[in-house]
Amino acid sequence: MFKNILLDNLTIGILVLDSNLEAKYLNKKMRNILKEQNIDEKRFNLSVKEFSLIENYQVRTYNIEVENEKFVQMEFHEIMEKSEYKLVTMLDTVQDFIFYLDSKGRIEYFNESYANYLGKSYLEIIGKKESEFFPKKMAEKCEINNRKALENGNFYEEEKFQGRWYQTFKSRVDLGNDKYGILGMIKEITDSKKKTLDLKEKVYKDLLTGLYNRNFYEEKINKLLENKKNTIFSMMILDIDKFKEINDNNGHDIGDLVLKKISEILKRNVRKSNDFIIRIGGDELSIIIDGTLEDLEKIYERIQKDLEKENLSNDLKFSVSVGMAERYENESLNSLYKKADIELYKMKDKKQKIK
């Protein structure tokens, strides 16, 4: 049931006892340990406690279940030199995951934090590859990261995994005699990453409406258009008709409420993740999409219908004017804005003449 070539090649002793504490399996190292300690291999009525007194070895005990039978698995680890033992003990107190991989990517050492994270025993981890513990996508990343560490000397990355953020560092270690491996450290940075992301959110988000702000427009949108010179983008500039009168007659609280309302309408109708809604300033809002003027006009139609419904169901009524333009190849953000702004004032002028 327990015989295994891998277990016989381990440098730790493995002893498996049944529920009556009778030995069911010993690996090669365990037999050598018993010989060293002058213990008769056939005499196994010793208690777990007595086995733990075997000199010069630390014992770790696990309860395991195989084919619906319960067993006690005992691992006998040779006590190291004092300095080496101190180092390993210290690494086991570190919350970061620390491990060492051989040149084939197999785990030769890991600290307690790494084992606890994986939720596996020593035998389930030692000699295995990282990729054996993670989903396919993450497993492939581990293999790529290891190759980069071996080729370039080190590898660093921050990534999100199962809702948590981790910082991974791997460094090639040359041991001489053509032996080498990878020292790895993984640190959870969820809290600090969240603070950083929250700070970025504050820098690029308008507090009143939750839309992107002018900082985002001038930095991120500018950079986006510069990097995608041949991509079609279209812009809509929108402002609230007679917004100053709304503020003067009803107060700034009502003006803020109107801004929130129109922002909610825009969010409901701008659906793609690579389209952006921005509060440029005051009541001036902008929509920038990765698409044509025709795509933008469809969005405007949805906004108008939604706004009409809002006006029918609420006492607070307002309207908007818009200007739209499509970017030429290589056209700058500033030039695109000017074209949309001209169209906005054409609509405003038309509304004035109708009155």
How does this model look, in words?
This protein has 355 residues and is an alpha+beta fold. 44% of the residues lie in helices and 27% in strands. The strands form 3 sheets. It has a 5-stranded antiparallel β-sheet, sandwiched between helices. A 4-stranded antiparallel β-sheet has the order 2-1-4-3. A hairpin with a 5-residue loop joins strand 1 and strand 2. Helix 10 crosses helix 11 and helix 11 packs across helix 12. The longest helix has 22 residues. The model has no long low-confidence stretch (mean pLDDT 85).
Describe the secondary-structure layout:
Elements (H helix, E strand, L loop, with lengths): L4 H4 L4 E5 L5 E4 L1 H9 L11 H4 L5 E10 L2 E10 L3 H12 L3 E6 L4 E4 L1 H7 L3 H4 L10 H17 L1 E8 L2 E13 L2 E10 L1 H15 L9 H14 L6 E7 L2 H8 L1 H18 L6 E6 L2 E6 L3 H21 L6 E7 L6 H22 L1
Antiparallel strand pairs: 1-2, 1-4, 3-4, 5-6, 5-9, 7-8, 8-9, 10-12, 10-13, 11-12
Tell me the major beta sheet. 5 strands, antiparallel
Portion in strands = 25-35%
Q: Rg, please?
A: 33 Å
- What structural class results from the helix and strand content? alpha+beta
Strand order of the largest sheet: 6-5-9-8-7
Count the DSSP helices: 13
Rough outline: elongated
In short:
The chain is α+β, with helices and mostly antiparallel strands. It has helices spanning 5-8, 28-36, 48-51, 82-93, 112-118, 122-125, 136-152, 190-204, 214-227, 243-250, 252-269, 293-313, 333-354; strands at 13-17, 23-26, 57-66, 69-78, 97-102, 107-110, 154-161, 164-176, 179-188, 234-240, 276-281, 284-289, 320-326.
